[in-house]
Amino acid sequence: MDNEIARDILSAYRSNGADARDPLFFEALEHADRDPETRLWFREQQALDRQVAAAMREVHTPADGKERLLTMLELEAKEAAGKPAWTRMWQVGLGLAAMLVLTLSIVTFVNDRDNLSEHYVVSSENFSLSQLARNSMPLDFRGKTTNTLMDWLSQKGAPTPQSLPTALQQAVAYGCKIYATENGGTISLLCVEVDGELLHMFVFEEKARALLKVTPWQWWGEGDWNMMAFDEGSQLVAVVTKASPEAINQMISG
To answer: How far apart are CA 131 and CA 71, in angstroms?
Structure first.
């Protein structure tokens, strides 16, 4: 299975996990778990699905029209339940398209997330660096190079690494994000691919660095995440990845 086929299949995957046992979806999920690019795409798709679902719940439409549409969707889902996955995708998709036609006049979706970062407020209570990485999707901005990501962060007044090793400068870039802290601090995230795995680089400005109290340059683990932090002047830079610490150490030291 290649990336294109996996994405076609996963585009119909329900965010509540109801399709996880379907053999076709299971194979696509395994492919996404092995491929960082597909995994990142799938996480963003799932996040968007949840946003759409939440928006639909807030939509106020004429009761009669909404009831008819929901009834139609229920019938289509029942009819599709016993059919192959590909058939279900198209059949249920027609009903979802109708739902979108009903709601798009009320709910507007935008690609530019410039004004949404203010909602990502990091709490000091039970702060977890691995949890921050795990829930980093969707990203605020997508770019193909780390320089593009750093330029965008700088334009927003967010902290960026003072120096970036050549290996990380040349890494496959995915995107970045900005967080706010309760005391008015800022945390930046740069997301790139290293050694076949995603690498999350968090930059804590001075007001935010108190959230993370660790010994600099010492790796530690939480679940399958490997983490390490180091000082850069008044800033603290933290690396979170599932790649091996040895591979990251070579890149950073280079």
So the answer is: 38
Query: pLDDT per residue over 164-220, tens digit each?
Result: 888 788 888 889 999 999 888 999 999 998 777 889 999 999 999 999 989 999 999
β-bridge pairing 186-194 and 225-232:
unpaired
Residues in the chain: 254
Q: What is the CA radius of gyration of the chain?
A: 21
Do the Cβ atoms of 38 and 45 come closer than 8 Å? no
Q: 117-253 — its CATH code?
A: 3.30.200.100
CA distances from 196 to 25, 58, 134 (A): 23, 40, 17
Q: Which residue has the tokens 């329900």?
A: 14
- Rounded to 10 deg, the angle between the 36-58 and 23-34 helix axes is 120
Rounded to the nearest angstrom, the gap between the alpha carbon of residue 27 and the centroid of all alpha carbons in its chain is: 21
Its pTM surpasses 0.85: no
Within 10 angstroms of residue 11's Cβ, the number of other Cβ atoms is 14
Is residue 122 within a helix (H) or strand (E), and if so which, with residue range?
strand 121-122
Q: CA–CA separation, 53 vs 122, rounded Å?
A: 24
Cβ–Cβ < 8 Å for 210, 220: no
How many angstroms separate the CA atoms of 170 and 193, rounded? 10
What's the DSSP call for residue 138? S
Cα angle 158, 217, 40; round to 5:
55
pLDDT in tens, 59-85: 555 555 555 555 555 555 544 555 455
Backbone dihedral angles phi then psi of residue 232, each to the nearest 5 degrees? -135, 85
* Domain residue spans of the chain: 3-103, 117-253
Rounded to 10°, the helix 63-80/85-103 angle is: 170
